[in-house]
Each structure stands twice: as structure tokens, then as C-alpha cells.
Amino acid sequence: MSHNTFGHLFRVTTWGESHGPALGCVIDGCPPGLRLTEADIQVWLDKRRPGQGRYVSQRQEPDAVRILSGVFEDEAVRARFGGQVTTGTPISLIIENTDQRSRDYADIAAAFRPGHADYAYFAKYGVRDYRGGGRQSARETAARVAAGAVARKVLGEGVRIRAALIQIGSHAVDRQGWDWAETTRNPFWCPDPAMVAVWEQHLDATRKAGSSTGAIIEVEAEGVPPGWGAPIYGKLDAELAAALMSINAAKGVEIGAGFAAAALSGEENADEMRAGNDGPVFLSNQAGGILGGISTGQSVVARVAFKPTSSILAPRRSINEAGEEIEIRTTGRHDPCVGVRAAPVVEAMTACVLADAMLRHRAQTGGGSRRPGG
Fold it and tell me: Are the C-beta atoms of residues 373 and 183 closer than 8 Å to each other?
């Protein structure tokens, strides 16, 4: 299988399967001298970990990360940097799987789940790991979250990335009640406290029916300076969209106003500017912080739509590897809505794209930004 790596200067290769002994990633291109410990990574993995509520998979994985390479510490390093730092060499991270239940998939070993990647994988490779979805399982996103933690170190504290779950099924948050602080106070990463009870009722009914539901995640990156990205084939929004679309179950990505821009007038869509002390002040952000593929200095804003989980208890018509028509239902431990645990993954992929963009911008221009009047 090819294409397990993404990024240019900040490059991430993930490896491993849902029911294999472990999974992880190798990060190449991380600058030296950055403070990095396993605790710095674990805090983000804990946000994505399964088994933390009745609305997510009950698979009990500690998702404990170990750093195998790319860091160093001795007395001289402690005196200079204050602790363990990156060396500039590849950083290898490993997360062991401890709670696999492969027997749950015995009945579908030769069957294709409708809406799942089972058939496409078999058609391409002629062989597939059906246990938990193998390589195509969302379990792989643990490695992405680990890589995202390293990317945040590269970006530094000046760039703040945060995501929120803004819609489950047809139930969307009220923008008037939006409060980022609420995303840390409920199990849904929901910025609208009034929507939590609605989602609970919706998910309870969905699980009782043996079904699943889709969701939308919004991510915002504050502090991105103007100048990151490149025109034509290196557009920041194109690379961000590609990274977000690569997440399991993602079926749509929009930047800024996105598809709603088609209904706007030119006057409504144009983000007007006035002069500010540190560059232009934008009066709106329909562009989502990116124009011509280059960041403008505004917050970078994107949304990702996730399809309903394909592994459901409700019986569905399908075929098996022999081409026979069958009826299939999937047992085991599955998220009724993948969006509930997707926010940390969306944040991580955004961090990786921005870290790569920052390093490429620094390599080409020295890292500076050209501002009007400067």
C-alpha cells in the first residue's frame, strides 16, 4: 500500500492496523531544540481516546504513547533548554493496542459492509484485514493526533487551534449561543450548551434503532500570520482540505463561507479592509483566512462533514467475496457518531498542515511577512 505519508517539510508517515499489536507514526522534518516529552503528546491523545462515554466506542484503550527516537536529554541539554528536546532526526512514536476483540468480526470476514471501504479495499488489493477495518479503521487517527501534538510544538504558542462539533444529524448549534469554553465542559465538544440535551436524545434514539448518524466539525486556527501557503499548486486551503478529507468518514470540506458563498453577492463575499496599527483590519471573514492560497492573517476556518458510521446493527443488503447476495449486520463496539471523537483529529491535521506551511514559508522567504505601509 502506498500513500501513507503526508506533508512536505513536516512529513508524517502513519503505520499500523486496528487489531494489530500497535500503531504509530514517524515524523520527519521537526526542527531541533523543541521541548518534547510523552506527556506533551498524551494530553491530546486522551482527548480522542475511546471508552469515555456512552456515545462513543466502548473499546478500552489507554492510548499510551512512547517516543522511540528523535529526542535527547543530558545535563548540558537540561541546562540549555530545561529538559528533553527534539534533535532534528525522525521522531518515531508508538501506541500499543490492548483491547482488540477480533472475534466480533468473524461473521463479516468475507462480507462487504455497505457504505464501508471493505469492497473498495478488496477490489484494489485482493486481500483485506477485516478485523475492525484494519488499516482503514479510525483507530489509525490516534497516530495523527500524536503527530499533531508535535506539530503544535513547531507552531508554538502563537498559533491556537481549536475545533467544535457544530452539528449531529440535522441538529445544528445556534451561532448566537456559541461559546468556545463550553467545548471543554461537555462530552460533545459542543460550543452551544443548549444543544447538548438535544444531541443526547438524538444519539440515544439512534443507538436504540441500531443505526448511526453524521456530523460536522468546525476548526479555527488563530494567530496564523499572513503569507503562509503558495499560489496555484501549493495553496494552503487546498492542502488543508486534502488533509481534512483524508480523515476516516470525511465526505466534505469547506473553507470560510464554503458552499454558502455561492449564494452571496460580490459585496457580501468581499472581506472589506481598513487600516490597522499592525496591518489591515478585516471587517468579515468569508474567505476563512485564506486568499489565493495564502493566509491573510485572519483566523483560518474550515468545516468537515462526516458520514454516519458504516458499522451498524440494522440489517442491510450486500454481497460477499464470492459475489453472493447476503444480508449483513455488524456487531461489536462502534461509535454511533464518529463526529463525537473527531474534533481532536481535525485539530491535529490542521496543526500538521500549518506546521508544514510555516516551515516552507520560512525556507522560501526567511519567515517574514510583507505588510502594507511596512
Answer: no
DSSP-derived secondary structure letter, 259: G
Task: Give backbone dihedrals phi and psi of 343, rounded to 5 degrees, phi first.
Answer: -55, -45
Phi, psi of 311 (to 5 degrees): -85, 105
What are phi and psi for residue 93, nearest 5 degrees? -120, 140
Cell numbers at residue 187, please? 462530552
pLDDT digits (tens, 9 = 90+) for 100-135: 666 666 677 888 988 888 899 899 999 888 776 777
Say how far apart CA 91 and CA 37 lie, in whole Å. Answer: 11
Question: For strand 160-168 and strand 215-222, is the pairing parallel, antiparallel, or unpaired?
Answer: antiparallel
Best CA proximity match to 161, nearest among 144, 149, 178: 149
User: How many angstroms separate the CA atoms of 291 and 251, rounded?
Assistant: 23
Contact 217, 347 (CB under 8 A): no
101 or 147, which is more confident: 147
Number of Cα atoms under 13 Å in the Cβ half of residue 201: 7
The residue behind cell 482527548 is 47
177-232 pLDDT per residue, tens: 899 999 999 989 999 999 999 999 999 999 889 899 999 999 999 999 999 999 99
| C-alpha cell of residue 256 | 470560510
Q: Is 20 exposed, middle or buried (0-12, 13-18, 19+ CB in 10 A)?
A: middle
C-alpha distances in angstroms, 238 versus 164, 168, 234, 281? 21, 26, 7, 25
Strands, E assignment, 97-179: 160-168, 171-172
